[in-house]
Structures are given as structure tokens and as C-alpha cells.
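#struct-help
A.M.: can someone run this one for me? Single chain, 225 residues.
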Amino acid sequence: MTRIVVRIGGSVVASPINIDIMSKYVKLVQEIHLQGHQIAVILGGGTLAREFINIAKNLNLESDAQDRIAISVSRLYAQLFTEKLGKFGWSKVATTLDEAAECFSQGKIVVMGGLKPGHTTDTVGALVAERLGAELLVKGTDQEGVYTKDPRKFSDAVKIDQMTFNDLSQVLECSEHKVGIHQVIDAMAIDILKRNHVKAVVFNGFKPENLLLAANGKNVGTIIS
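D.P.: on it. C-alpha cells below:
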């Protein structure tokens, strides 16, 4: 049995909402759960969250308020996911680490969105992995994995198959939290995963089958340890 945190980027399921991919992820998570693994799923808010962040900025709301609004959006997607899980999920979206632990202890699949201002959903995933003693965090993104530089900006970017967390820190554009930040994994999450010796796999989230491959120890995307 492996304890796995599944981080599904908002760019994959929520930019715009992709019902087909979300449904496939639900089925795969159920399948992995039936294999005997314990799973927590963290969903991002994607484009809609960033749109509401911009609205909040235009209303001259402070950064914590912007974050809280984005968290509400991510939890809406998490609610869709947990409702679709049916009996496999808990009665509601977990909104604290204590609730995540309680859900886990009941043998249910944990589903979460954001947690609190100042934390991206990457950091939420890392904190959940720490609290639940997970061995693996997998993240589905809008890229094939981690690159030497942002492939959306640089045509000469090269995908990296395996790397350390120290290596990953060197290729990040931002080393601190910004509201609505969008990069492969944020710096705070890296620190948490590193200190807890949690292996991470970043893969193309538009291919949900990659989740099953990663959960079963197959080489896919970029492996970080």
C-alpha cells in the first residue's frame, strides 16, 4: 500500500472546466484506491480563480482577500470531484489538515482545494503529504514534465526526466508566494516535500492515464527526489 497525494492543476481541469478529463481522473483515483492505495486529491482553481483574483485586485482588496477568493474557487472544483467520487469520497471537501487526516482514517479519498492565504495548492498538496505520511506526490500539469526553462516562452527548453529538489529550485522563476502564481511547483512546496523525503512526479495532466503509470512506479514525466 502506498499513500499518494494527487495534485491536479487547474490548467488541466479548470481552464476551462474539462468534464471529460475530470471524470477520467475520478475513475482512475477510484481504481487506484481499490488497488489498496490511500489517496488525497488536491485541485487548483485555474483560469477562473485568476479571473476572480483580478476582480479582487480591481476592487482594491488586499492579497489575503484575493487568496481567499481563489481558495473558494478551487474548493468549488473540489466539490465537483468529491460528489463524482460518490461512496469513495467523504461527505464534504476537507478544508483543514485535521479534516484530511480524519477522512483518511475512515478509509475515504481526501479531496481538497486551497487551504489558507499564502499557500498555493502545491503547498497544500505538500502539507497534506506531510500530515498523512504520504510517500509520493504526483502532479498533472499543462506540460510533459519539468523543463530547463519555461517551454511556453523558450523554444529551446529541454525536458528533464529525473532531478533532485535542489535542481528543481534552480529552474523556478519565482522563489516566493505571489497571488495566482503559475509555475511547475512553488518553492514552499519543494521545501516541505524535500524535508519529508516525499518523491514527486510531474506529468502531462491532459493524459490522465499518466496518473496510473506514476502510481504504479512507472517512469513518466519528470521524477523528483
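A.M.: thanks! The two ends are 20 Å apart (CA to CA).
D.P.: also worth noting: DSSP finds nine helices and nine strands in the chain.
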